[in-house]
Amino acid sequence: MATPARLAPLLDQFDFARRRLTDRMAGPVMDSGNGTDVEVGPMTDAEFLWEPGPGCWSVRRRADGPGPRATVLTGSGAWGRDATPAPHPTPPPFTTIAWRLSHLSELLALRADHTNGSHGLTRDDYESTGDVTSAVAAFDTAAGAWRDALLSADDAALDTVGYSTYPHGSDPEDPFLETVWWVNQELLHHGAEIALLRDLYRIRQSGAA
User: Fold this and answer.
1) Of 1, 26, 48, 97, which residue is least crowded by CB atoms under 10 Å?
2) pLDDT reading at 172 higher than 90
3) Nearest to 133, CA basis, from 88, 98, 81
């Protein structure tokens, strides 16, 4: 099926942002934004779980329980992501790279399932991990599933309200094209946050001003 003309630029943007974030986390180089390669080392587990200040939310061993102001660890498996039912804490807790990447991967995986999959996955089904290698691989899998979901959409689907039935957003009330745009901005802004945290960790480690 040919990619609808309205979807093509959003798909290109998604592909670029996905590749840039993956390279930013894994190295050895990343696109600076103008096609120039910039060297970047692979992320370590210590960096992945680094808490820059007190009261951070992160991904934690389920046996250890949730972090400050969190009441649950979402998902399945031995690790979970700090969370709490609404109303959420104010001001919002600062979150680690592990938390942000788990959140991003979960929303991609669940939206893919609620677009062209079983339409049944919930946050309780998603498995977070405590090591960076597994987390980056999970992100790649989730991003690939979302891309496949995009390729399943024709022009009529882009205008269909509720084409994505993802229950943790406005997807059931939105035309699918708006959902596609929203997911791109999620990838862009969380990718930028992760990149900034990598820079701050590097500066902290080197002692540079």
Assistant:
1) 1
2) yes
3) 98
